[in-house]
Amino acid sequence: MDKVPTRDRILLATAELFRRQGYTGTGLKAVVAEAGAPFGSLYHHFPGGKQQLSEEVIHASGAYFQALVMAAYDEQSTTADSVWAVFAGAAETLEQTDYADACPIATVALEVASTDDVLRRATAEVFTAWVEALTERLDGDRDRATAVICALEGAFVLSRALRSTEPMFAAGRLALAGLG
Q: What positions does the DNA-binding region cover (predicted)?
């Protein structure tokens, strides 16, 4: 990570910390420590402080996870296999990380929806992009795409709380049920 520019290291470190401990649990000192960056560099690159940094992390993480999920989705030969691959992959990630890594967008959205409209809008923009990408793959069925995203995000919450992949697989089966 030493050869990665400081600004990028700060973004990557913040994204990782948000995934594991959320927005409110992530302090700026922890960010620079994780990034191996001097504290002053944070305000040099993000003069708007934590809010600016967080907004950029939300958008960057949203694009990254969308690409990751759509790649897994697009590798499959049928819509049903694609949807199942997304839920199975999420379950595998949860197990491999001892339920620490979930969706950073949902984590932040739950924390800031009533307190920070800039970050609420950023998370809404990411979710909208995800629904639109999935809508394209589901032949324009926006309701189905929204339902699949809702099932996935809700399953992340329950799986982490219960420390079980059972909710993720149950949500995956529910998402499949409506595909016909």
A: 27-46
- pLDDT tens-digit series, residues 20-72: 888 999 999 999 999 999 999 999 999 999 999 999 999 999 999 999 999 98
Domain count, the chain: 1
Q: What is the pLDDT of residue 21?
A: 87
Residue 25 lies in a domain: no
Taking Cα atoms as reference points, which of 46, 34, 40, 33 lies closest to residue 7?
46
CATH number of the domain bearing residue 65 = 1.10.357.10
pTM of the model as a whole: 0.90
Is residue 171 in a domain?
yes
